[in-house]
Amino acid sequence: MSQAMAPTIAVLSQKGGTGKTTTVRTLADVLRRGGIRTLAIDLDPQGNLSDYFDLPTDVEPTIADVLAGRASVAEAIHQDLVPANLSLAEAELALGGKMGREQTLGRALAKAPADYEAILIDCPPSLGLLTVNALVAADYALITAEAQYFALQGVEQAMEVVELARDSLNPRLTLLGVLLNLADMRTVHSREALASLQERFGERVFATVIRASIAYAESAERARSILDYRPDLGADYAALAAEALARIPGLTDAAGRLASVAQSSPT
Ligand SMILES: Nc1ncnc2c1ncn2[C@@H]1O[C@H](COP(=O)(O)OP(=O)(O)OP(=O)(O)O)[C@@H](O)[C@H]1O
Ligand SMILES: [Mg+2]
Known about the structure:
Helices cover 44% and strands 12% of the residues. The protein has helices at 20-33, 48-52, 63-67, 87-96, 104-109, 129-137, 151-168, 188-201, 215-221, 226-229, 231-246, 255-264; strands at 8-12, 38-42, 81-82, 118-122, 140-146, 174-181. Strands 3-2-4-1-5-6 form a six-stranded parallel sheet, with helices on both faces. The chain contains twelve helices and six strands. Helix 1 (20-33) crosses helix 11 (231-246) and helix 11 (231-246) packs antiparallel against helix 12. The longest helix has 18 residues, at 151-168.
């Protein structure tokens, strides 16, 4: 069953504000423009991903209905996104008391429409039950870190949860990579953050770092992709997508299609 499923990537971090949602949104944009059918899943009660894609706030059913068993994933897909809102906080609490609570998302996703080629999950800024559900449902974990002094500690804590999920619940889970985000490589602390991650995680750290720019907040506010709003910055995500796909058997070939996405962006 899991083999037939599209490669599923959970984007997580121990801390808030490491650019998870922006990463899911923009990677989905890059993959789709490369012709890769991509499903995005908002697993954060804040519902930021749903906002970023400019979905109506009252759209239903949502991921909360899926976790509660009231809707299938297929029913909860709106414009290739399964949205979330505050009702997900309630659904998480209800989930806590159930048998198989960690496997609920994975079981639901196993029945996702078969025509998707990639699935991206945006996790909330905590390592609780929702993030564990994402890790049990996923084939790959992508850990984001803000380029700050304590980047390494945050990634190590996220990594512990990834290992726990792999050892106890999901042996196929693989670390796709560690992404340094919101980076300003002119500063000592961004350079030190990257060096400490590379020292600890070696080649699992993506060579691509995502540069910090106020343009991200501006583009999010306008619900526009950074690929259109600032193609010069969007190039970071095109490079990240190429690097990530090269690590995913089954999508490696698709990486070639992405080259044209980066090149076709006006600068
Ligand atoms: N590369 C970047 N440079 C500067 N700002 C960024 C960058 N990427 C994202 N941001 C901004 O930083 C804020 C947090 O980003 P985002 O929502 O993607 O992070 P997050 O990890 O999903 O946050 P949360 O933990 O709250 O879910 C947003 O205002 C976003 O627009
Ligand atoms: Mg977020």
